[in-house]
Every structure is written in structure tokens, then in C-alpha cells.
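hey
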């Protein structure tokens, strides 16, 4: 299954580092949210009456949040807070005094952002039904109904669907779906066992499918059984979920913020200041295959080089061209290395190559990289492949170009201080894996000094955008 585009979540600087560090979220094709009712964490997790929910908590692609909390009592404010980051002034389960609401909300943000949203309520008698109750359906558990037809942040009544309309062809699901079972099946009036059985019978097929189709189930509860901690079970299951138990404090706002950041839509109410959930994901790396040679390490007689460790960076393609991710790899004798970037989002970057005693070298132009397809870049076949043509020809048949060597102190210049370091080690014939060994033969001698001297004489230095 090809992984879709990934979303930038936040940007920060590590102290003492020039690398900008990104946390990223996978972008599921589909998220299905199921909200259950009025049971605390310890009533569900470990309960023999909830075998299916507990199987999700222990799923190899499941994350159990052991410190998850509702945001209020009673039910209706929780649904509104989960959906819009605010109770919209509603503190009871009664019909709101004034509606439709006009505030930013998840459904409108998704729809206005080019995504899709539908809420599915069990026993809802018709599309767009706006009544207080019908059978075992209750309006207080349906937050999206409060914005249908609103002149601001509203949407058509087709967003408000009966559960019977939930697709059996999961490829046709909206980007985000919200499912609310009826009062029996959500455990409000029914038993834990009834709710657990309903989930197995109605959700399990989607869960099986989601784990191989870049999709995600979010199972949570509106509130607990009216305790002060308001601790509830919350479980994520999906293809890119990192299995385990997570003890960080989260509530409805954190989940809402996570969904909004996944799809890069405006944040709703208190979700704007809530932390997104970032630690429960398995995110594949960006793979970049590089061909390059190192001056001094390359032998024109054999068309091979001494293998050594390289560090590569992805740098932003706009000023100030900050480096956003790094990776290490060993370049082969044939000049090939593969770098795996775990943190940068898919995008367009300059590729930067760094070696222990060579000049940092940038790609001539930015390259586009994605997690769904490995990328390649060949520095070796043309001087113009380096930014500022900042390489040296080291062979003519075959035509080879290499990054400049001799920058012992890695300050971006080959200069007197580098020559002094090499000269000092060459006097004692120093040996081993040393920065001053410019040709990679594990001995520091005159040959290393000559390479560095020639580059210093030509004022060789780093060239960047």
C-alpha cells in the first residue's frame, strides 16, 4: 500500500544544533471515530465483559492511552468539546437555547480544506434530522447537527446521516467519519457486553481493512461514570500505529488537535493550545540513494574509493535554507550510499553531503523526496551537480567528480589551520582513523598535506544557496 503525503506537525530547534527537528504524523486516507458512553477506564480495560475492546487495546497495530480523560460532565459538552474545542456555552444535556452554532468545528474545517466529513448516528430517522430524540437516538450525542445549515462554518444536512448509510465499501468512506451508536449500543443504557458486541459486529471489518489500507480507528468514550478524574479508555488502531500503552495525559482536545494537524486544517477552540499526540506512530523513512566520490579517497586506476561514513542533510529550499533532518550512511567503494531520513516530511529540499575531512557539498538544485518512492542523486557525473559547481574532476575516463578534501576542522574552508593539523600528525607519522588522513589510507603523511595545500592555495570552501 502506497503511503500518502505526510504532515508537518511542529518545528523546533535542538539546543546547540543547526538541525530543525520535525515531528510528523501519517496522513490516513480515512479516520473512523467511534464514541461510546459513560464508562471509566477501569470499568472497560481488563473487563471480561469487553473482550473485543481489550483485543483492540492489545492489537499489534493498536495504541492504548492509559491516561485519557473526558473534559466535562454530563455528555453533551464532551461531544461538543471533542468536535469543536468548546462546549459552545452548553453545560447540560438539554437542547441548546440557540443554534446553529457558528464557531470553527472539525467537519467544516475538513470540508473547507478539500476533505470530507460525515457523522453517522444509529437510529437517526432521516438525513439531517434535527429533533431531540427518536427511538434510541438522542441529539445530545450528535454534535455536528448543531452546525448544519449555519451561515458560518456550516455545511449541508447531508453531513448528518443515519448509521445505515455507513459504507460497506471502505474505499468510499469520507476522510473522517464519526459514529455514535444508539443509547443501548453505546453502553449508556445498555450493558458493557452489549456495547462490546456491537463494536465487534459493526467495526471489526473496518479495523481489519484499516490495518492494510492506511486508515485509522479512534475508539473513545465521552466521559467516565461521573468521577472527578473522568478517566476514559481511548484506543487507536491502524496501519501506522506503534503498538503499546501510552501514559501521557490526553483529553478530547488533544485528539481533536491531532486530527486537525493530520489534515492541516484550522484548529478549533481549545484544540489550538492542546498538544497533538505524536508518540504512537510508525512512520517510514525517506530514502535517498546517492552516488558520490571523495577527493583523495578515490583511485583513478581502479575507479574505486576507500569506503567511509558520510552524513547527509535535507535543507529547506527557501531562505534561510535550514537543515531539517540528517542521516548517516557508509559510502561504498563504488561511490554508492543510501540515506534514510526519519523526521523530515515529504517535500522539496537541498541535499547536503558532509564527510569527516571534506568540504560540505550541496546539490545544485533542490530535489523532491517522498516516503512512497525512493529518490536518487548523482554528484559524480558532472561538476554542475554540486551547488556552485563546487567539486573537483578526479578522472576523465570514466568522467568522475569528487567533493573537495582537506577541511580538517570542518569550518567550511581549507586553510592554514587545516594544514597545521595535518603537518603536526605527519611529523609523527600518525596512523588510524583520523581527520588528518585526507586520502583514507590510515596514515598521515606528505600525500595528505599536498591535497590540503592545493585546495587551500585555491581558496576552496563551502558554497551554499
Amino acid at each position: 500500500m502506497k503511503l500518502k503525503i505526510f504532515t508537518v506537525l511542529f518545528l523546533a530547534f535542538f539546543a546547540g544544533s543547526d538541525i530543525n527537528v520535525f515531528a510528523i504524523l501519517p496522513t490516513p486516507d480515512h479516520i473512523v471515530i467511534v464514541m461510546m458512553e459513560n464508562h471509566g477506564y477501569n470499568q472497560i480495560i481488563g473487563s471480561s465483559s469487553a473482550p473485543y475492546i481489550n483485543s483492540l487495546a492489545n492489537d499489534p497495530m493498536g495504541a492504548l492511552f492509559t491516561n485519557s480523560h473526558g473534559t466535562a460532565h454530563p455528555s453533551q459538552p464532551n461531544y461538543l468539546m471533542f468536535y469543536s474545542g468548546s462546549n459552545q456555552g452548553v453545560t447540560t444535556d438539554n437542547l441548546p437555547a440557540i443554534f446553529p452554532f457558528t464557531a470553527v468545528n472539525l467537519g467544516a474545517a475538513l470540508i473547507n480544506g478539500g476533505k470530507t466529513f460525515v457523522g453517522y448516528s444509529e437510529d437517526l430517522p432521516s438525513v439531517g434530522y434535527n429533533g431531540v430524540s427518536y427511538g434510541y437516538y438522542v441529539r445530545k450525542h450528535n454534535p455536528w447537527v448543531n452546525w448544519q445549515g449555519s451561515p458560518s462554518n456550516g455545511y449541508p444536512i447531508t453531513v448528518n446521516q443515519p448509521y445505515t448509510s455507513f459504507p460497506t465499501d471502505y474505499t468510499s468512506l469520507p476522510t473522517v467519519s464519526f459514529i455514535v451508536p444508539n443509547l443501548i449500543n453505546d453502553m449508556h443504557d445498555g450493558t458493557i457486553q452489549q456495547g462490546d458486541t456491537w463494536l465487534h459486529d459493526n467495526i471489526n471489518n473496518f479495523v481489519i481493512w484499516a490495518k492494510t489500507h492506511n486508515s485509522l480507528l479512534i475508539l473513545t468514550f465521552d466521559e467516565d461514570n461521573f468521577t472527578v478524574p473522568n478517566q476514559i479508555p481511548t484506543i487507536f488502531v491502524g496501519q501506522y500505529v506503534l503498538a503499546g500503552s501510552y501514559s501521557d495525559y490526553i483529553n478530547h482536545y488533544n485528539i481533536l488537535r491531532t486530527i486537525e494537524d493530520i489534515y492541516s486544517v484550522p484548529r478549533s477552540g481549545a484544540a489550538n493550545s492542546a498538544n497533538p499526540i505524536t508518540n504512537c506512530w510508525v512512520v517510514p523513512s525517506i530514502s535517498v540513494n546517492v552516488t558520490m566520490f571523495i577527493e583523495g579517497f578515490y583511485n583513478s586506476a581502479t575507479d574505486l574509493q576507500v569506503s567511509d561514513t558520510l552524513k547527509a542533510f535535507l535543507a529547506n529550499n527557501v531562505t534561510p535554507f535550514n537543515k531539517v533532518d540528517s542521516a548517516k550512511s557508509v559510502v561504498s567503494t563504488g561511490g554508492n550510499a543510501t540515506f534514510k531520513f526519519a523526521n523530515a516530511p515529504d517535500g522539496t529540499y537541498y541535499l547536503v553531503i558532509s564527510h569527516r575531512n571534506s568540504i560540505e557539498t550541496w546539490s545544485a538544485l533542490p530535489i523532491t523526496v517522498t516516503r512512497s518512492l525512493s529518490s536518487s542523486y548523482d554528484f559524480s557525473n558532472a561538476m554542475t551537480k554540486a551547488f556552485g559547481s563546487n567539486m573537483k574532476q578526479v578522472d576523465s575516463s570514466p568522467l568522475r567528480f569528487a567533493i573537495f578534501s582537506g577541511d580538517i576542522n570542518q569550518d567550511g574552508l581549507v586553510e592554514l589551520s587545516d594544514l597545521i593539523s595535518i603537518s603536526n600528525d605527519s611529523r609523527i607519522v600518525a596512523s588510524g582513523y583520523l581527520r588528518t588522513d585526507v586520502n583514507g589510507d590510515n596514515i598521515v603523511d606528505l600525500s595528505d598535506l599536498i591535497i590540503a595545500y592545493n585546495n587551500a592555495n585555491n581558496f576552496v570552501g563551502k558554497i551554499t544557496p
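The mean pLDDT is 94. The longest helix spans residues 192-210.
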